């Protein structure tokens, strides 16, 4: 589904980084829901009325061509802001990142997040910190995710905006090169908004989340009967949806059925429904197939259980034998 | 939400930085001196803001920026944009000097290998992108920028892939134009200019046309443009375009050969003759219409049977040719089924129906209702089997 966006993004802006990647194409940013929750949890500590700045590091994967960033996780980095100056606890950032890196070898620092009401010089300073140096986004360009939820001293629904810091002025001539003494500080940026998509987890995660939502976990039943209950719930849900469509179609007048929205519905249904559910009509055949499938599952479960018990028995016997000696 | 400029320097330093960039290209220091002259006694105080802006514009337009390399250009342009916004506000953009400069700098010929450092069209597009995001949503200058973007895409001889525009603009174009206060004529004109840029006649653009014509009425000329686009497209089933607005215009344009051809095509009639305008695409259109004709046959007879022998299907002369036609139809996603070459039968499982507005669709609604009831009963059957199985398991435990 396409979502209308107030931001135009045709081409990735020119950024100052050795691995800025391909120019001349649009850039995509995906934010995983787990990272969104993590970021929200951190920025919500920005307690009013002190309105203390909360920032953190964004982690995830990026493509070598610099056109896709996938934010998967985040952690907080303490900072201390006094007037125009800001101090970031660099050591904490480094240690937390190295710890994270041990478990996620293929992931990198992608940039940083904050929750300021407006983008200012301090934003540029922090962005510069994340754009250079080891254990940061360098040599790729840093991303900035701003979560705005405080406007004029009041809490609002959080608004997520992702930015890339485009270069301004002569700095592009001095693009950083790998090697010694090549780092130059540049605190001037055009923070260019880049559209992002918040992506859900896998379908397996969604099934688990829906299951948890029902809050009725029958611990006495076997695994198979749990699966069957889930199947029944899904079948009932599909049947309810079919009923809803049939109600809509049957209650609409002939004129209403000719409007563009209903014609779209007719097109969608005509072109996506299989004309006849052939096998599903034959009750006996269906019952036989399903019974056979269940017998197979039960057999596998039984064998698994038997093997597990045997392993446990051997382990127990070995440990008893060791004790006697 | 908009692009935000953060510059860690005084305005005077930024002005002089721009002077240094232009002088660096021209290998003089005349421009820096002319900029310096606008500051009172070496201080940061500006003597005449309007004159300073004019001097900056002269540096931009007198080939000051066009000699920069592709890598240097965008950052230098960002600096100019920042200076103009600081000194003249959004008025500095709406007067059109910067916009025209970008259009003039845009290369109309593909750069040779010797000129590989020269400014590229995508960089110009990126600059327009930044200007657009700096402006408020209700600024009329946004309309001009969109016009210029389409102009650049048109003259850049394919160096800007249409995909860039369709992904970045497609779904937002109408809402942006409406917010910027564009008239209906402007919106229509820009939308059809955008459509004309798609030389691949893609499915995505067909979807945008469908959404657009649902909101705005369609004139005969516009209907002909849509017809040309759809007939040239690789997409076979274009019946989704036939909403109430477009179908009314096509039915009322009885004098237009193209409109009538398009209507016949969408209804699944075999096209044997195409107008001169489409002569290059004649074979393509004829072969698409044959596939749709076959689909129409299956859709009309699907209620009574699902297994068809070759002999039952009209106009099957050469079996090999017919099998290729069937495979093309399956590839296009308009039918689904299994082909048995030995028995010379086709087992149909799914077929698209051509739903066209202003036609009698009662039968199609009835067919959908019948299919939905079939599915509902089948699901009840499955549920019963599942429940029986679960009870058995609970009893065994």
Automatic annotation (TrEMBL), chain A:
Origin: domain of life: Eukaryota
Organism name: Scheffersomyces spartinae
Residue ranges annotated for the EIF3F/CSN6-like C-terminal domain, each copy included: 205-314
Signal peptide: none
Gene3D superfamilies, per database record: Cytidine Deaminase, domain 2
Molecular function GO labels: metallopeptidase activity; translation initiation factor activity; translation initiation factor binding
GO CC terms of this entry: eukaryotic translation initiation factor 3 complex, eIF3m
Ranges for domain JAB1/MPN/MOV34 metalloenzyme: 28-132
Protein name as catalogued: MPN domain-containing protein
From TrEMBL, chain B:
One GO BP annotation of this record: cytoplasmic translational initiation
Domain of life: Eukaryota
Any one of the GO CC terms: eukaryotic translation initiation factor 3 complex
InterPro entries in UniProt: COPS7/eIF3m
Protein name from the UniProt record: Eukaryotic translation initiation factor 3 subunit M
Organism: Scheffersomyces spartinae
